[in-house]
Amino acid sequence: MALRTYKSVAPNIGERCYIDDSSVLVGDVTLGDDSSIWPLVAARGDVNKIQIGERTNVQDGSVLHVTRRTTQFPEGFPLIIGDDVTVGHKCMLHGCQLGNRILVGMGAIIMDGAVVEDDVFIGAGTLVPPNKRLESGYLYVGNPMQKKRPLKDSESAFLKQSAINYVMLKDEYIEDSL
């Protein structure tokens, strides 16, 4: 695993986390307990912070980055990801905020300043433009994204179940490596 310090700031990893050896976490990256980072993920907290909550999984080939602080944007755009979030394969998350119990479908892109409230399903390949807000309880799809419909009960339940599935999987990987 590649945990790299940048300007004297090293990644901060919670308890019982799995980080694949092929992934790279640089600088101001915090990973909450029971979370997992899968093969070929790049998380670069060099010019701002990346904060990933508990029981969150970031799947293969995803890129996580931030936007620096400027006069126009004194806080810049950090990347904040909540608890029980599933980030699908090859996603791009850049300077956005994701709440809790979210599924980001494969290949989705979420841009600077976007805010995704709790309990949201983002379809595969969806583009969330800068500074958009995705309201809790809905499915969003398309390029650019559109609010498609309210989530079905089964979809809402799957948001949490997906996170649980990845906690169990990362536990198997950890056990297998002992």
Automatic annotation (TrEMBL):
Classification via InterPro entries: Hexapep (IPR001451), LbH_gamma_CA-like (IPR047324), Transf_Hexapept/Carb_Anhydrase (IPR050484), Trimer_LpxA-like_sf (IPR011004)
CDD domains: LbH_gamma_CA_like
UniProt-listed SUPFAM superfamilies: Trimeric LpxA-like enzymes
Protein name: Gamma carbonic anhydrase family protein
Species this protein is from: Alteromonas genovensis
